[in-house]
Amino acid sequence: MRTRAALFRAVGEPFEVVELDLEEPGPGDVVVSMAAVGICGTDLHQVKGEFQRPTPMVLGHEGAGVVEEVGSAVRGLSPGDEVVLSWAPSCGACADCRRGRPAACVPLHRAIAAGTLVDGTTGISFRGETVYRGTATGALAERVVVAAKAALPTGGGIPLEEAALLGCAALTGVGSVLFAARVSPGSSVLVLGGGGVGQFVVQGARIAGATTIVCADPVEARRAQALQLGATDAFDPADLEAGLAELAPEGVDYAFDAVGDPSTSAAALGFTRSGGTTVIVGLPPTGSRLDLDPAQLTRREKWLTGTMYGSEDPAVALPILLEHVRAGRLDLASLVGPSYPLDAINEAVEASLAGTPGRVLVTP
Ligand SMILES: [Zn+2]
Ligand SMILES: [Zn+2]
């Protein structure tokens, strides 16, 4: 079996679209024909050299498509089903998986660091050379072979360009509010960063019933979008301190750092009220260190935590998000950015690096 895919070789080199060899799917695998793949911050970390992972690699882990073929042992999925890819199919056996936290699965994170699937293989090669998989997925391709539990059915009725966003940004952003922080109605929420994930944190806060939702981002278009999606106020980071002095003089109940830079994480903690909760959502570059005043945690009793992929099993979280989409509470359409064919992968990555509002999509 073969597929065309976008190959990332090294920092500073353009992606190359090549035809890869795929190993035949096993009895528990499915073949998914990709319809739309979002360019996520994690992909950009790699493009910028902020993560060290093996190459050549097929990046992309936020995608939706149509099941093309199912292995003999697969139940509950059939050719033609529309699916969202989950990058945390997990091992199912480690302590984290058994506690229902597959996004924290140790073998999964080992696999992500090694550029493989959870079983240690990649199943793809180019002219005999192993090709690695970004975030245990490798979705920037016309077709991918994944374990059946990594293909979650949408039930149809949602355009695949929109459904793609559910696969990482929405599960991460909305999940950080509903499943990690468990924001209660009437709360005040601060969101640092109005990119793909940040806009979903804003929507999660609205869905959770937060009554003050402040978003900070240096890009005007992103602030405008946050206001449309449920933020009650939006500021340039330079004006945030003055703005919050009016809106939440004691600090906010919950502050989410959707950027993941040590400086934004420290700022989020600083803007949290005594006893409030700070959640790091964005992924920091490898080697980052946080410099904090411990008195924020002792004398002021703040809670500082982080979340990965919304802190819930994607197989549990996705149906909940789909329900919010169908009920009109979770807006995917206005977060869909420009889309590019696979052959224009380099333009797509450029657009994403430039901070284009909305998720930049590749439609293989
Ligand atoms: Zn992602
Ligand atoms: Zn596990």
Write a brief caption for the model.
The protein has 364 residues and is an alpha/beta fold.
Describe the 3D structure:
Strands 3, 5, 6, 10, 11, 18 and 19 form a 7-stranded mixed sheet that branches. Strands 14-13-12-15-16-17 form a 6-stranded parallel sheet, with helices on both faces. It has a 4-stranded antiparallel sheet with strand order 1-2-7-8, with no helix packed on it. The model has no long low-confidence stretch (mean pLDDT 96). It is an alpha/beta fold. It has 10 helices and 19 strands. It is globular. The protein has helices spanning 41-47, 95-98, 106-114, 160-181, 196-208, 220-229, 237-247, 262-271, 314-326, 345-353, and strands at residues 2-7, 16-22, 29-38, 57-58, 62-70, 82-85, 124-126, 129-130, 132-133, 143-147, 151-153, 188-192, 212-216, 233-235, 252-257, 272-280, 303-306, 336-340, 359-362. Helix 5 links the parallel strand 12 (188-192) and strand 13 (212-216). The structure holds zinc ion (2 copies). The site of one zinc ion (ZN) has 9 residues, from helix 2 and helix 3.
What's the count of strands? Answer: 19
What does the average pLDDT come to?
A: 96
Radius of gyration: 20 Å
Which molecules are bound in this entry? zinc ion
Query: How would a textbook summarize the main sheet?
Result: 7 strands, mixed
H and E order: EEEHEEEHHEEEEEHEHEHEHEHEEHEHE
Helix content: 25-40%
Give structural attributes.
364 residues; alpha/beta; seven-stranded mixed β-sheet; six-stranded parallel β-sheet; 10 helices; 19 strands; globular; binds zinc ion
